[in-house]
Amino acid sequence: MADTQQVDPRAERRVAKLARQIDAFAKAHGGAEGQVAYIGERGARIVLVGEDGGWGDLVAPSYALAEKAVEKAGITVHEDFDGEFAAKVRTGPYEWTRMAGIQVGGPSNT
Asked: Quick one: CA dihedral 64, 82, 92, 26, positive or negative?
């Protein structure tokens, strides 16, 4: 029986673009691993961690497209962002200021 599943060209282009962005990140950081998290109606967040500890993220319009993009990019994907995977992230002064800004007297949005 033939596969009758329709291929959405727009979705395929989005997957290809996300995969290229993941590849570029991996090349810039000596390799990469990722984790895909559902973020509601907005879609899914692809968190990337490079071998050098650099990190970044991308947002895909759906969890399914995010999964296809990381598969196409060929990176290792983790179920959760914890343990050894989370320990690979290296943060700098900017991140520490933003994460702890309110607690240590930094800028407040209130």
From this structure: negative
Whole-Å CA distances, 39 to 16, 19, 69: 21, 19, 16
Contact between 78 and 34 under an 8 Å Cβ cutoff? The reply is yes
Q: CB of 34 within 8 A of CB of 47?
A: yes
Q: What is the DSSP letter of 40?
A: G
What count of other Cβ atoms lies within 10 Å of the Cβ of residue 24?
Answer: 12
- Predicted TM-score (pTM) of the model is 0.79
The single-letter DSSP state of residue 20 is H
pLDDT < 70 positions in the chain: 1-6, 96, 99-110
Is 46 within 8 Å of 34 (Cβ atoms)? yes
Amino acid at 67: E
**Side-chain-facing half-sphere of 70: CA atoms under 13 Å:** 26
- DSSP letter (8 states) at residue 33: E
